[in-house]
Amino acid sequence: MSLVRAVLHLAVIGFLVLPWRCEVLGDCSLTTTGITPVNDLWTGIYHGYAGALYPNGANYPPPEHRAAGIEIATNQIRPLNASGNYDPVNGRIVMISVGMSNTTIEFSRFVTMANADPTKNPRLVVVDGAQGGQDASAWVSPTAQTWSTLNSRLAAAGVTPAQVQVAWVKQARANPNSLGAFPLHAQVLQSNLEAIARNLKTNYPNIKIAYYSSRTRAYTNDPRTLNPEPFAYESAFSVRWMIENQINGAANLNFDPNRGAVVAPWLAWGPYLWADGTNPRSDGFVWLCSDLQTDFTHPSISGATKVDQELLAFFKTHATAAPWFLRPPDQQISCAVMLTQAGWSPGMTVPFFATANSQAHTITQYAWTFDDGDFSFAQNPSKVFAAPGLYNVRLTVSDDAGNTATRTTLIPVQTNFWQDKTEHGETAGAGQGVK
User: Fold this and answer.
1) How confident is the model at residue 244 (pLDDT cuts 50, 70, 90)?
2) 249 burial class (0-12, 13-18, 19+ CB within 10 angstroms)?
3) What does the pLDDT look like over 293-318, one tens digit per residue?
4) Does the pLDDT of residue 7 top 80, yes or no?
């Protein structure tokens, strides 16, 4: 490359990433904002808006929406050939990412992590489509260059748009302070996210599911910076409102052919990534200043690894993901989960105890998700459930040969649990095993 071409090349790169450049105005002493993670809010209100990931203060989808996602994952996501026709022998299931610089930093590493995991479905091809400098506004047109770039990455991976069936979307708006105070900037992002959902269906006609996540924690609250707090935190409301619109039957986000024209995939939360710095959320997850680069916004290697671990736990355990993400089981792993009692009140710590055995192989991993965006890789984790509900806690155990076993444990959390036990003369604390 000549000197002139090299200079021009660098100039083009600088132009592409310019929207995401910012001054270093962060502060590692910003270890807490005093804001409660959305999935821990329960009945709490944030600036007049209800918390939780889903409607009615719940951190999991309504039964009908959940059932639809499970049916899609179990029966509709299948290996497809290059033309989009079912091919159980040579077909592929393609999962893509859509997002900006943070997303590609995280997902490009996740591709490597997933491909190295022996439990991954051999028919699954994971492609990072996220692009640096391309915030949500760069994806709102179905013919934008961002989609063309994504398609070129599909081609490089040896797959086609007709084989794309799953997406992980993590988006934001650069410099959201210019869009107005909450909820205005979050409503603009919500509109962009809904457009992206429709564009996914337009550009990838066989797509079935799109999981959305909001931003990770920033260590800056200076409004002049790229995506400071509380804007990063508030992006969760954009995701929640979009998904709520689909649940409520919005025609411009319909995924169900029985309800009219299908214009979007089934939408749901992926992992919830935000934690208030060093203040642990209900699964103990924290986000340190060292988890960010020197701009206090983009993830460092440690931060990207944390996100990748959340993604891996989610896809290996979630009822709408495990059926297509994991390879078909070829060996039975014995696995059980033990609980210390039959129910809990909000705010109590729930300890989990897992045992597993694989004949002729070694157990290598315990992956947990708790139905509210939280996760763990501990064999015996503890978790606080802030809001009442009936939680489907899922554990996927893996061995060194790539075999897996998944168990679901129902955790009832209710405000009057101890009162009910006392009134009926019962004693909480009886152990139970769930298989």
Assistant:
1) very high
2) exposed
3) 999 999 999 999 999 999 999 999 99
4) no
One-letter identity of residue 362: T
CA–CA gap between residue 340 and residue 419 (Å, rounded)? 18
Instruction: Dihedral sign for Cα 411, 414, 418, 421, please.
Output: negative
Instruction: Report phi then psi at 108, rounded to 5.
Output: -65, -35
The residues, any chain, with a CB within 8 Å of residue 429's CB and separated by 6 or more, are 340, 341
Please give the Cα distance from 57 to 176 (Å, whole number).
Answer: 26
Mean pLDDT of the chain: 90
Locate 245 and state its tokens: 């619109």
Residue 19 has pLDDT above 50, yes or no: no
User: Residue 91's closest CA among 104, 80, 75, 107?
Assistant: 80
**pLDDT tens readout for residues 263-273:** 999 999 999 99
Task: Dig out the tokens for 336 from the structure.
Answer: 């059980």
* Eight-state DSSP code of residue 73: I
Give the integer Cα–Cα distance in Å for 285 and 275: 7
Q: Please write down the long-range contacts of 326-332, taking CB distance under 8 Å and 24 or more positions apart.
A: 326/119, 326/120, 326/121, 326/396, 326/404, 326/406, 327/119, 327/120, 327/121, 327/122, 327/402, 327/404, 328/121, 329/403, 329/404, 329/405, 330/403, 331/358, 331/359, 331/361, 331/399, 331/401, 331/403, 332/405
Burial label for 310, CB within 10 Å (0-12, 13-18, 19+), is buried
Task: For 230-241, give the DSSP string.
Answer: THHHHHHHHHHH
Q: Distance (Å, rounded) from C-alpha 268 to C-alpha 278?
A: 27
What is the signed CA dihedral for 223, 224, 225, 226, rounded to 10 degrees?
90
The single residue listed with the structure tokens 């009908």 is 64
Tokens 């989990």 locate to 352
Helix or strand (DSSP H, E) at 211: strand 209-213
Place of tokens 């909001």: 214
